[in-house]
Amino acid sequence: MESSVLSTLSAYLLTLVSATALAITGSTTMAAAKQPSKAELVQRLSKAIEFNQQAEVELLKQLKIVTRWVAEFHQRYDHYPRSPQEIGLFQTQLGKLLPDNPFEIKQPKSTEEQPLLMQHRDPLNPTDSDAPRIQVMYDPSLNITALEMAKQNPPGNWFSNPGTVAIVTDGLNLCAVWIGGFDGRPLRDTTNNRTIFYVIR
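Now predict its structure.
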């Protein structure tokens, strides 16, 4: 699993290096003069991996918090969030109670001192920091068999902003709660590579 994560992060960082050279150095001339060396890339990769590991520890804590909220909601109302008001409760009000998203873009004193994963949470949509921390996804076809398969291969629509908690529910009897990693896909257990999510029924 470590080699898989390393490979994925390496590809991600190497893609970002050329695209962000001007932003980091400030000019075309300086960018040409300050292309990162192999040693610098290795150092940045090491920092990014360390940052990602710390972020995942925090995200797992937040995943458990939201799972508890969903379970308590179901126990009280005998169904999962389904109306606009109930979905709004989770996506706006409760989402604001979560600790900070570790993948949230910050304003560092010096961008060169920050891991690239923090600088570029989402290169295609760098202004998505206002997106809800909790996302409710309604799927009437959700069933136990599908969730068993998701442990190895989560559905393609299980995708969110990094650090966003997703609540997938049939609206009545079944619910799965997962959280997006740095690539927007559900976190995986590093010991067995299985998708991490909690099932409530």
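Residues 2-200 form one domain.
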